[in-house]
Amino acid sequence: MAHTGQSEYPTGNPAYPTAPAGYPAQTPPGYAYSNQQQNVQQQPVQTVIVRQPQQAAPSDYLAFAIIVTFCCCLPFGIVGIIKASEAKNRFASGDYDGAEESSESAKNWSIAGLVTGCIKLTLVIILNFVLAASAVNEADEYYN
Questions:
Q1: Alpha-carbon distance 9 to 27, whole Å?
Q2: pLDDT tens for residues 85-111?
Q3: What is the pLDDT of residues 50-80, one digit of tens each?
């Protein structure tokens, strides 16, 4: 193609070529040729921020569950630990009602483990006294 000094682009807008024959002229978005009217109305921008009131995290009773696990009743303590971590996770994900429910469940499992451990300890102490008394009685009868 020989250069003739004329550009194939219109002089008003060198970035866009003219439309081929048989096609209507198109205007790029955001650009108006000088012979076109451009009616642009600005819409007001609205930003809505919804904030929920900051709620305090429910107690997860994790320390209580760990103490119950090591000192009183292993199975109930493990369930208490699981429920305590579930309460933390639910609160972190925004499920406050679920966190409250898991927190209450962790507390109940830990209390059940504590009560079970206390009953178990009481029974062991009573059994030791009974066995010791029985052994003393047997020894007394043996030597008399």
A1: 14
A2: 999 999 999 899 999 999 999 999 999
A3: 766 678 889 999 999 999 999 989 999 999 9
d(CA 91, CA 75): 25
3-state secondary structure of 141: helix
| Neighbouring C-beta atoms of residue 79, cutoff 10 Å | 21
Query: How far, in Å, CA of 78 to CA of 67, rounded?
Result: 10
Q: Which residue pairs, CB below 8 angstroms and at least 24 apart, start in 48-57?
A: 55/96, 57/88, 57/91, 57/99
* Structure-block tokens of residue 47: 């930003």
Q: What are phi and psi of 104, to 5 degrees?
A: -65, -40
CA distance 59 to 103: 6
What does the alpha-carbon distance between residue 95 and residue 86 come to, in Å, rounded to a whole number?
11
Long-range CB pairs of 40-44, under 8 A, 24+ apart, other chains included: none
